[in-house]
Amino acid sequence: MDLPTGRLGVWWVIASEIVIFGGLLASYVMNRIGHVGFGDQAAHTNVWAGGFNTFVLLTSSLSAVLAHAAAERGDGARAAKLLRYTTLGGAVFLVVKGFEWTHEIQAGFTITSSLFWSFYYTAAGLHAAHVIAGMVIMLIVAASAARNQHLQRVENIGIYWHFVDLVWIFLFPLLYIAK
Amino acid sequence: MSHEHAAAHEPSGLLKYVWSTDHKMIAFQYLFTGMAMALIGGFTVYVFRMQLAFPGEAVPLFGRVSASSYNALVTSHGSIMIFWVAMPVLIAAFGNYLIPLMVGCDDMAFPKVNRLSFQIFFLSAVLLTASFFVPGGAFGGAWTAYPPLSTSGVYNQTPIGATMWLVAVALEFVAFLLGGINFITTTMNSRAPGMRMFDIPIVVWMIVIASVLFMASVGPLVAGAVMLLFDQVIGTGFYDPARGGDPVLWQHLFWFFGHPEVYVVLLPAMGIVAEVMAVHARKRLFAYRTIVYTAVATSIISFFVWAHHQFVAGIDPRMASLFSVTTLIISIPVAEMVFVYIATLYGGAISLTTPMLWALAFLVEFLWGGVTGIFLGAAGSDIYFHDTYFVTAHFHYTFFPIAFIAGFAGITHWFPKMFGRMMDERLGKIHFWGTIISFNLIFLPLFITGAAGDHRRIFDYSGFPDLNLPYLQNLRIMATYALLAMIAFQVVFFYNFARSLRGGAVAGANPWKATTLEWLAASPPPHGNFPVMPTVYRGPYEYGVPDRADDFWPQYEPAGPAGQEPRLGAAGHGPAPSGAMAAPER
Ligand code: HEM
Ligand SMILES: [Cu+2]
Q1: Which residues are B543's β-sheet partners?
Q2: What 8-state DSSP symbol labels residue B585?
Q3: Arithmetic mean of pLDDT, B45-52
Q4: Cβ proximity of B304 and B326 under 8 Å
Q5: Chain A residues contacting B, CB < 8 Å?
Q6: Which of A117, B204, B247, B518 would you label with A45, given CA atoms 20 to 30 Å apart?
Q7: Average of pLDDT values for A154-179?
């Protein structure tokens, strides 16, 4: 096989994550189809905050791509810098999410309010946990890339970040837009 | 890459056993943890079978069994045997031990991930064992953890134990997901030069396919487990109808994993049996490629049968018919594999060594499981048999061959490689016959009591006049006595194991005259496995080769002088046309 060992490992992780999120989202969709009025609650979610976060995540994926390109050229310092921008994007995403959740909870929508809100917090929370994990790993990768070491890891963490991004692309319409 | 990981990096002294990243040491850690958990699982079954035979009497070493401790014992038994015995022994222990040796490399692709995987697994085993000792005791809601029994301490009466069970199972899943990374990348990327896809020994194929199957099926259940955990500790209502949730959702998520899981453990077991049969019958594995394709097909079909566990859960009858059909269809590839194995034996020079006896017994006993599965796969008869001891007998005729019979076949076959000594054949045969006879005496009676209406998970039949008939009670007592006999015969195994470690005859590198790469390494293999990395020249099962002094032709042995001997095709295909050279083509 031609795939490098590290990248194979990343694909394995992503494949296992896809089925996890797949199971959660399939359960959510089945519930929505099965229960009249289930989706009405989605009207309370803040589409603007969600939309802004989608934009932030997509942009952060762009700098991950640029970081990969820099790593390919052997420019570890630039790759590290771009990865830190990506991490910053993740941080902005989390801050917005924090404001959003605070607002929802103050309005009385908590994880136990109804099945919709249970799914909302569980799915978005699981996703946010992945964002945090990705940021931590990214900073570690950036630190070694800055010293021009393990440059192939730049691509691997990028693949993972695109996956986190992609999950959000599914979550956003399902949780925010479809009313 | 694994090469940066040389012998010098290996920790020394006692630490070697805890922090080793060597695949063989990790395999042993899995093997011995699995064997220890089997003792716990065995102890629970001893207690509750004693209760069924002699209800209300104090069980020696345990005391009186209450209704809720009975539930906890049964639940722990099922969970332990599947998640902490079958999986770690068949997949993790054999996978870790065999894959690098059989594909001819020095270690797994990610040795540190490998160690982490065991450590998480070990933590999960500790957590599960500890749950026996918390207030309320171990979880009692059955290994399937159906809500509402599993969601609320009000129902399961084991509030702490239930959460510990769930977290332990989740950690176990993470451990095996991490393990799979290594199995698949090592097999894809670290094969010895010359080893093509169809030169890979069948057991490696089976473990890799099982790992992919596990990865693909377990995800939805991980999500389901998070939801269940939130129901338990935060008070969400994912599975609570009063709050808009649906308990049957859990059943779908559970069995979408649960049925493929049967094949996750079955495939490695069939792989082990195939290796043992080829070696001890001196025959090329019949239809080797077909076995690989069949294993893949079985894995795919296994995703379309899960609702046969829900025939009585109020599903649409049209859906029930559909799942009956798919369930019956999956018996075709499984039966095909059994026939292929019989064809391998046909005309072979069978030597009835202990490993071979276990391999043969696997086929015979597993057949019983498969045949009785047909009764349960047909929705009409399952509605009667559901949750009776008939079901219990059925899946034990499948799981016992998988987890124990194939396990013993593997341990006795590879013991000389693992420890450099032979096991005692006479003790091995005593253990074999004792185990097989008592196994049948335990479970054959349960088909009868089940067909008579014995419902599972009743801890004392004396409260049910219709089931408290003397002939049924006698059958229950018979099953319990047979269990005591089986436990006694396991002492023979442990004695043989311990004694052979030091006192067995010295094995040498290749005592069974086998062809695959692991037999090239010294017994036991040192850290790094091979003195010189091997090259592969042919398929893995060249036994009974004509025109050779030996009746076998190892994968690692170059052709004779001037390439006189033709390169044989991949196993399952005849010799390549003469003139083909020994140099491997890709
Ligand atoms: C050969 C084809 C097989 C068929 C047609 C089959 C069919 C079934 C069906 C329909 C049930 C549901 C019974 C009920 O609860 O009413 C069942 C239960 C079960 N089967 Fe199988 N099965 C097969 C093979 C296996 C194998 C190979 C294993 C294990 C290695 C296995 C393990 C189980 C277990 C553990 C249960 C019990 C589920 C529970 O706790 O309720 N089966 N089987
Ligand atoms: Cu099933």
Answers
A1: B552
A2: P
A3: 97
A4: yes
A5: 1, 3, 5, 8-9, 12-13, 15-24, 26-27, 30-31, 34-35, 38, 111-112, 114-115, 118, 122, 126
A6: B247
A7: 94
Alpha-carbon span B201 to B379, nearest angstrom: 38
Say what the pLDDT of residue B10 is.
64
- The vertex-B120 CA angle with B119 and B121, nearest 5°, equals 90
Residues in chain B with CB shorter than 8 Å from the CB of A114 are 243-244
Tokens representing residue B68 in the block: 């809720």
Note the ligand closest to the C-alpha atom of B78. 1
The per-residue pLDDT for B9 is 61
CB B191 within 8 A of CB B555: no
Give the pLDDT band (50/70/90) at residue B2: very low
Determine the Cα–Cα distance for residues B111 and B113; give it in Å rounded to an integer: 6
Confirm whether pTM is higher than 0.90: yes
Tell me how long chain A is. 179
Residue B531 DSSP label: S
- B111 CA: distance to closest CA in chain A (Å): 12
Phi, psi of B63 (to 5 degrees): 105, -165
Task: Among B80, B262, B298, B363, say which to mutate for ligand 1: greatest number of ligand atoms within 8 Å of CB.
Answer: B262
Q: Which pair of structure tokens corresponds to residue B496? A: 């043989």
Average pLDDT estimate for A35-46: 84
Give the tokens for residue B295: 């294993």
Q: Whose CA is nearest to atom 1 of ligand 1?
A: B370
Contact at 8 Å (CB) between B275 and B201? yes
Beta bridge partners of B421: B506
